[in-house]
Input
Amino acid sequence: MGMMPSQLHPGGRPAARRLIAAFWAVGLWLPPAAAADCPVTAAPAAPFAVDGFYADRQGSMVDAVRRAARDRAVAPYEAFVRLVQRQADAFATRQDRAEADCALDSLASWARAGILTGALSSPQAEYERNWYLAGLALAYLKLMTVADGDRRTAIETWLGRLAGSTEGALDRGVIPANNLSYWAGLALAAAGLATGNPEREARATRVLRDGLAAVGPDGTLPQELRRGEKALDYHAFAAAPLATLALVESARGRPFDREALRHLSERVMAGVGDPAFFAGRAGAAQVAPAAWNLAWLGIYRTVVPGEGPMPAHATASHFLGGDVEATIAAIRQTAGRRP
Output
């Protein structure tokens, strides 16, 4: 963890400590990266290989053995994403420069190693890479003001390469037109913001347009209704990237279909309170979404304000860059800085 100036200089004179505290308060004094004891998530040596874990084609029944294998395969990658996000949030919420430097060093290390670049083993691996790209690029937005020199070049080049792989997967039809394409769109939007690539942002805009166009008058998504007992859960999972893409559009001053997003989001919130509608449409009793799968509600209320109560939900998600409020601020700030 990063240290405050008084911890770095415990023997300093009172006047000097007051001066350092004043510099800290206005962002002019920042501790060096060397002062931090940075935790490390080593870059995996083996290529990323992971398979799907559903027992049926519509993705409603989990195969426990295959899911356990998937969880083992992704563990080091998810640990890395969560670590970088935690460090980025420490900087975004507390201006902890030491933690920011740890995050930038970690990102640059994986970037220079080319982790997750190139061809992958399966469609599931493509989906996972998109989730990591979205989560890491959104976290990087929180660090951009202090990203410098070779680290900045390495990180942004890497994010661009990962985004190019996402585009390729979309072009080849590897990613179906359901929640998975929305997450791919968010990965492109986040990487586009992080690297200053308007073409990738434009493609993300098209993904958002198509996703909101798929929302029916009753607020449902046909592809997610096929999920049986997970229909409500996957509506929530699909709403997360759509709401975040809408935030990017809003920050850029571009229009989007607010009513479609409202219908989807309100349907999900109603379903959390009473899943009978989804049970009837999907033909199965519903699995309630976990709190992390509703973290996007804070983003939704930012772009479509309302006064009604919201279900209990997490305030952070590794799919959304970590701390959601910090992600919202980073998207807005980056959109304001970069044309």
Remarks:
- Residues 1-30 form one domain.
